[in-house]
Amino acid sequence: MLTDEQKRTRAETRHRTAALRAEEDALRREAKRCEWHEEDMFLTREQAAAGELCRGCGLEVIDGLGSWPPLMHLSPEQRIEHDAAETRYKQLHPDCRAHRWSIDGSRTTHCGLCCPPVPFSRSQLDAVAKILDGHVRRDEELDIWALDLTCGHRVEHNVHHTQRYWVGSTTHCPECSMTRGIVTSERNVEAADRKKELEQRRAADVTKAEREVAKAEKAAAAAREKLAALKAGQ
Fold it and tell me: Under DSSP, is residue 60 helix (H, G, I), strand (E, B) or coil?
């Protein structure tokens, strides 16, 4: 029977091991991105449409076969083809531990670690711009999260209060100047508290401004009286 201390120690060990694994994967991805840029491995949208092969895995980016139907709707022939493609993918990327990507209207799947992505189309860029257009940051709606990293440093990030748990396994450490794994995450300040604090600060600023206005008005009244007295004595 484990004691509470032993359970806590085991949990901390699991969290740290997972964070170190995530950090390793993130650094591998960053190294790959540097390689893609240094070796000029990115295809343009036009090159991919013209049939040029992926400069990572050597397969087509746009194969013109159309997207796969939902798995439950695959015909027997499509199922055989799909399973063969899945087997080939696993042989090419046995330990990449990365996401997969493909182009709409194409069945060839590419690896997020090995295969440089193709730029967004104009319609995709317009859709993203439409989502982001008019977005206004409101600090009073943000929670402050403290993240303990594998290097021992702690960093803070602001996220919207609707995010009830921390999303992500790595982040940039400004002290190390590199990506680190997140061992633990903790919400330090909630948006409701920040909003209340902001309202109190605004109320204090309003009170201060009112005192300054009253003081200025009193000084102006005194100045007018002095001016009237001077004119009366002329």
Answer: strand
